[in-house]
Specification:
mainly alpha, 2 strands
């Protein structure tokens, strides 16, 4: 149980990069980007192939980020310059990436890193990942406070308003989607090096996992400002992995039920704030009714005494 929880925390930290990427498109840009399912595998494929061909793991990781950003840029261009619906742009790019990833794998469905040196070959992931995740989160916070970052945030909030101020929203959208998929590819590259294995189908369902991390983090820890929101996303990724690990201890659940567990967690995270808001409003209405009843009773008693 203890080892399982440690493994869940490690996986949560590794997937936190992807969750931060999904946060950029889902919350900041309000862009339904399904490229994630393909760019996650792209990151893993580039890292795996480069490492087995003798490149340094850090260089392979940087190349994976570049590959993910390139995929995101293509999606952004399809949407902004090609005038294709955002959701459809992501789907088209996701489908294209499946074939591209197989090309990167050299036609093989998967790739093993057994015996190769990776970033985690000589170091415990738990000793470095918290600091790396924190460093990336702080960099992201600082970027979102710059003029360019504020323009990016404003693009998602009110594109018409920010265009009237002279900002090219096409460029900010392309930048945001590129950064998002770069982060997703980074996560894919790290997961591949952690598990010493990459597969052409490893990205399927990643968008749901990313959304689950964002929604769970915001529901539990809140999202009042950028610092708190990105911290909530990172913690949400860890909480999600712990919940999944605990769910797999339920006797009648199997590892093959992972997708079902993910869907149930996301549904619960989406419905929970509505239930919480409904109960709060109901409680306030009850208190208000009691106050009005007390006030009416007091007025009646006052009238009887005066009479």
């Amino acid at each position: 149980m203890y080892d399982s929880m440690l493994g869940a925390v490690e996986m949560g930290l590794l997937y936190a990069f992807m969750a931060l990427g999904v946060y950029i498109t889902f919350r900041i840009l309000d862009f339904p980007d399904l490229t994630v399912d393909g760019s996650f595998t792209t990151g893993g494929a580039i890292a795996a192939v480069m490492i087995t061909n003798g490149y340094a793991p850090w260089l392979a990781t940087l190349a994976a980020i570049a590959g993910g950003m390139l995929a995101g840029m293509c999606t952004g261009l399809l949407h902004t310059k090609g005038k294709i619906n955002g959701l459809l742009s992501g789907i088209l790019m996701m489908i294209a990436l499946y074939s591209i990833n197989l090309r990167i794998f050299g036609g093989k469905p998967n790739w093993s890193l057994m015996g190769d040196t990776t970033l985690f070959s000589s170091i415990n992931p738990l000793l470095v990942l918290p600091f790396v995740v924190l460093f990336v989160k702080i960099l992201m916070d600082l970027f979102l406070r710059t003029d360019l970052g504020l323009a990016l945030r404003a693009t998602g909030d009110n594109a018409r308003m920010i265009r009237s101020l002279g900002v090219n929203t096409d460029n900010t959208t392309i930048l945001g989607v590129s950064l998002s998929n770069g982060m997703v590819a980074l996560s894919g590259a790290l997961i591949t090096q952690y598990s010493t294995f990459a597969d052409s189908s490893m990205g399927i369902g990643m968008i749901v996992i990313g959304l689950a991390s964002v929604i769970i983090g915001e529901a539990i820890f809140g999202a009042g400002n950028v610092f708190r929101a990105t911290l909530a996303v990172v913690l949400g990724s860890i909480v999600y992995r712990i919940v999944v690990a605990l769910a797999l201890y339920v006797p009648w659940l199997r590892p093959s039920d992972l997708k079902l567990i993910t869907a149930i967690i996301v549904i619960f995270a989406l419905v929970f704030p509505s239930i919480q808001r409904f109960l709060k409003q109901k409680n306030m209405a009850r208190k208000r009714s009691l106050e009005l009843a007390d006030h009416a009773l007091s007025s009646k008693r006052g009238g009887s005494i005066d009479a």
